[in-house]
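Whiteboard transcription, Tuesday session. T.W. wrote the C-alpha cells on the left side:
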C-alpha cells in the first residue's frame, strides 16, 4: 500500500469540511421544519376524520413528483372493510410507481 501524498490528504480534509458544512446547513433546515425525514414507514400518528358521515383515515403523506407538491392519501374505512382491503395492502398499492388505484382511496393536496 502506498502512502497518500500531502495533496491527497489536503484534498480529503477539504472535502470533509465541505460535507460537514453541508450537514450543518441541512440540520438548520430540519430544525426549522422545512421538511421532515423519517426512517419509519409511517411519518405521522393515525389521523381519522369524518366528512358527510363517512369515516376516513389518512394513510400516506408524501411529495408527488408528478404534482410537484406534497399530497396526502386517505381511504374510506367502511369501503375498505367491505372490499376486504387491509391497511398494508393499501400502503403497498400506494408505494407502486405509479400508485395503483383502489376504490376506497382518494388523494388531495396539503
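and on the right, the sequence the group agreed on:
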Amino acid at each position: 500500500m502506498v502512502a497518500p501524498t500531502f495533496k491527497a490528504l489536503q484534498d480529503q480534509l477539504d472535502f470533509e469540511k465541505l460535507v460537514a458544512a453541508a450537514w450543518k446547513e441541512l440540520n438548520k433546515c430540519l430544525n426549522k421544519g422545512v421538511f421532515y425525514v423519517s426512517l419509519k414507514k409511517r411519518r405521522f400518528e393515525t389521523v381519522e376524520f369524518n366528512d358527510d358521515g363517512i369515516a376516513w383515515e389518512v394513510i400516506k403523506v408524501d411529495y408527488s413528483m408528478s404534482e410537484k407538491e406534497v399530497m396526502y392519501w386517505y381511504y374510506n374505512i367502511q369501503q375498505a372493510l367491505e372490499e376486504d382491503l387491509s391497511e398494508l395492502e393499501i400502503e403497498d398499492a400506494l408505494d407502486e410507481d405509479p400508485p395503483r388505484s383502489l376504490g376506497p382511496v382518494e388523494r388531495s393536496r396539503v
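Someone added at the bottom: The chain has a mean pLDDT of 80.
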